[in-house]
Amino acid sequence: MLNGTCGTNGGTWMTNYKNKLFTGERSLFGEHNAVISDTTFGEGESPLKESRNIDIDNTIFKWKYPLWYSKHINVDHSIFETMSRSGIWYTDDIKITDSALQAPKLFRRGKDIELTNVHFSDAEETLWSCQNIKLDHVQANGNYFGMNSENIRVDDSSFIGNYIFDGAKNVEVHNSTFVSKDAFGIVRM
Question: pTM, whole model, 2 decimals?
Answer without folding.
Answer: 0.92
